[in-house]
Amino acid sequence: MIVDGQGGGVGRQLVENIKKECLDCEVIAVGTNAVATQTMLKAGADHAATGENAVIAGCRKASVIMGPVGIVIADSLWGEITPAMAVAIGQADAVRILLPMNQCDNQIVGIEDVSVGRLVQYSMEEIRRIRRSKNKSCNMPENSL
After folding, report:
1. What whole-number distance in Å separates Cα of residue 92 and Cα of residue 134?
2. Separation CA 10–CA 22 (nearest Å)
């Protein structure tokens, strides 16, 4: 599951890269607003939904949740992340891959200043690592997350 807000640009890049790399993975895009959702859907997400309840419900089923780090901080993304969304994502029984973006009054120290494109590449490396790890530990097929 990919969660994004504002214009959905980060989510779009994540969807495009995941679909390129893992053609048979199911990608659920959840936007905090309709524009973000539509952007991720156009990028190739298999399913899409919008809003607080979509985030909460999606977190119950997701095995991996991706997005900018602000998705786990209440009132971030210029107020688009509600406290309930942040709690649901933070408490989900899923692996969270969070892109460390220094925006919206949240500054993450100790990270290199790289482009969103490079952060997406790092995310794809982590997805590969997770898939390898799960395949070894559970004898899961390569297309499972």
Report:
1. 18
2. 18
Contacts of 134 (CB under 8 A, 6+ apart): 140, 144, 145
> Is residue 128 a contact partner of residue 145, using CB atoms and an 8 Å limit?
no
Strands, E, within 69-110: which ranges? 95-99
Element at 118 (helix H, strand E) = helix 116-138
2-136: what CATH class?
alpha beta
Phi/psi for 88 (5° steps) reads -60, -45
What's the predicted TM-score (pTM) here?
Answer: 0.83
Q: Which helix (H) or strand (E) holds 3?
A: strand 2-4
- The closest alpha carbon to 16, from 45, 36, 38, 37, belongs to 45
- In 10 A of CB 109, how many CB atoms? 6
Beta-sheet strands, E only, within 9-102: 28-31, 47-50, 64-68, 95-99
- Interval 75-126: pLDDT, tens: 998 889 999 999 999 999 999 999 987 665 667 777 777 888 888 898 888 8
The residues spanned by each domain of the chain are 2-136
